[in-house]
Amino acid sequence: MTSSISKAQKGLVSQLIKLRKLTQPYFLPYTKNNGWLFVYLLIALLFCVGGTVLFLLTGLMSLLTNLAPDVTNQFLGGVQNSLKVIWNGPSGIIISSLFALGIFSFITVRGQLRQRRWLPWLLLGVIILMLLSVNGINAGITFLVRDITNALIQKDESESYKNLWILGICFIAALPIRSFQFYFSAKLQLLWREWLSKSLITDYLDDRTYYILNPNDESETNVDNPDQRITEDARDFTAQTIDLSLNIFDSLLVFSLNIFILLSISKELTLALIVYATLVSSLLLFASRKLFKLNYDQLRFEADFRYGLVHVRNNAESIAFYSGENQEEKEVSRRLKSVVDNFNLLIIWEALLRVLQRSGIYGSVFIPFIILAGPILSGQMDYGSFQQANLNYNLLEGSLFFIIYKIEALARFSASIGRLEGFQSNMNEIRNNQFEDFKVEIKNNDSIILKNVSIKTPGKDNYLINNLNLSLETGQSLLVVGPSGCGKTSLLRAISGLWAIQSGEIETPSNGELLFIPQKPYMTLGSLREQLCYPLDKNRFSDDHLKAVLEEVKLPQIIQRYPDLDIKQDWQRLLSLGEQQRLAFARLLLNSPKYVVLDEATSALDVNTEKHLYELLNKREMACISVGHRPTLKNYHENVLEITENKGWRLLPAASYQFTEN
């Protein structure tokens, strides 16, 4: 039992650490040592809000007293008296001092609240102010319910209507406050989600993190579906954090404002409620542990299922050519089965917990009657006090049963924290260079130089090339050949800076002077203009320049079909592979690098078009490294690098190299 409690405590601490890593950076720059500063600022914010409530209420009552003294004395005399007690006693000085301390605390850290970090604090303060206001009104309503009930029993007409008027004023005041509270809470959630998503996107695209994580290789990574983590998990996390935090704070306010009222009416009822709520909440927390893992798995299975359908959409033509509908249906159905099976378990556990929830809630209904029946029947308590006690009891019950009401939300929240923080931690590990096989150290040089370079597959001991030496100067060209799987493309990855080398040294031109063109070119989610200019600014070239380049790479039909260069289409689906490869050469000509790496970049083209494109590179004196199997390719290169299956290599003049027939 002790071991189980210790494990639960460690799990809770771990979740709180993860929660802080995700939450604090939006409100305060994150360091390992400033966690208590973050907590202190939250407390300081409460001081600021508490003082603001007192000052605003005092000012409002002074204004009403001056404008309508008779009405104020008749309907709001209790509020006036309460304010007098506060300001005539030590409470006013204490609240004012804490308010000043809160303001001073934020002034001292104002340098860390730049870059609009002051905005979430302001919104959070406004939301807490509204929560305090509404809960203050609710506390007053309990007294009004008591007085209205007693006045009705005594058939006191004037007192009944007066209190009903006050009750109506309370509801009118609370309605806009609750409405604005919803708006500001949703606004804070939206701004936080925008900030968090942008932060995750930046980290994901920085230092080729997206490439190193390699999310599509399910056997090589524990970070599945980064798209879902950045979109849905970030959305759910921010919404759930704000919702749960405000609900917890609201529950604490309700408890603080109503516990003393209920104690003044019945100590026995107060004690019974606290003991009952503690027992039921503990039982539910113990029983709900399975929910947390099921919710985590459900998010993953749902994302896998959605990705399977996206995969079909992105590869629709290839699947159609293969008539692979049956195989795709089996795979998508397998992913759907994981969703359904896990959700079935989720339904069972949630149903069992609902039984426990309802049992606990229904059982609590009897407690006020059991405890207070005796005093009412003996005449020690009037019915108005019972109604007030019952209302206070219900408010306190809601705050103490917070965990019972939110157990499913807490389980989903825990899953969101785990997935989002795991994604963030993996990206941090990459930034801290903990992925050794992707630590790329390349020196800048005007040439491409490889000295005793050995290459292996990342994460494995599969060596591909040993002790390779070569150099490529401006205007020179090299053809890389060899059997499939010998490491040709791996060599290009190392030269392009995607893979780290096991030993040796690589020198390449600076970024922008070396461009890689794969066999299947990358098509962006943009206009034709953006396709051509990628990754440069789309406004860098005129329409005439872009059209001339398309003519140059033998793509006049594209201009005829799409005369408007700003039109957006699904280019990967609309263009054939040959058209995509020619468009990639147009992009290459516009980027004008000194060196270009071509990985079977003309495999879908006829021999004459291939010759024409290589002649364009030669005219512009671009040095190139090509991978290919066509014997005609050697006509456009000075040297040939042949890589063998036994990690060996040899460098020969292209004129003397002979392709072997397989």
What would you say this structure looks like, in words?
The protein is an alpha/beta fold and 662 residues long. The protein folds into 2 domains: 14-29 and 117-431, Up-down Bundle (ABC transporter transmembrane region fold), CATH 1.20.1560.10; 438-656, 3-Layer(aba) Sandwich (Rossmann fold), CATH 3.40.50.300. Helix content is 67%, strand content 8%. It has 23 helices and 10 strands. It has helices at 2-27, 35-67, 69-75, 77-88, 90-108, 118-153, 157-205, 209-213, 226-265, 267-287, 289-314, 316-322, 325-377, 383-400, 402-405, 407-431, 488-495, 528-533, 543-552, 556-561, 571-574, 577-591, 607-619; strands at 443-444, 448-456, 463-472, 477-481, 503-508, 514-517, 595-599, 623-627, 639-643, 649-653. The strands form 2 sheets. The chain has a 6-stranded mixed sheet, with helices on both faces. A 4-stranded mixed sheet has the order 1-5-2-3, with helices on one face. Strand 2 (448-456) and strand 3 form a beta hairpin. The chain is elongated, with a radius of gyration of 35 Å. The mean pLDDT is 83. The chain crosses the membrane at residues 37-65, 85-109, 121-144, 164-184, 244-263, 269-287, 360-378. Residues 448-661 form the ABC transporter domain. Residues 126-412 form the ABC transmembrane type-1 domain.
Set out the fold topology.
Blueprint (H helix, E strand, L loop, with lengths): L1 H26 L7 H33 L1 H7 L1 H12 L1 H19 L9 H36 L3 H49 L3 H5 L12 H40 L1 H21 L1 H26 L1 H7 L2 H53 L5 H18 L1 H4 L1 H25 L11 E2 L3 E9 L6 E10 L4 E5 L6 H8 L7 E6 L5 E4 L10 H6 L9 H10 L3 H6 L9 H4 L2 H15 L3 E5 L7 H13 L3 E5 L11 E5 L5 E5 L9
Parallel strand pairs: 1-5, 4-8, 4-9, 6-7, 7-8
Antiparallel strand pairs: 2-3, 2-5, 9-10
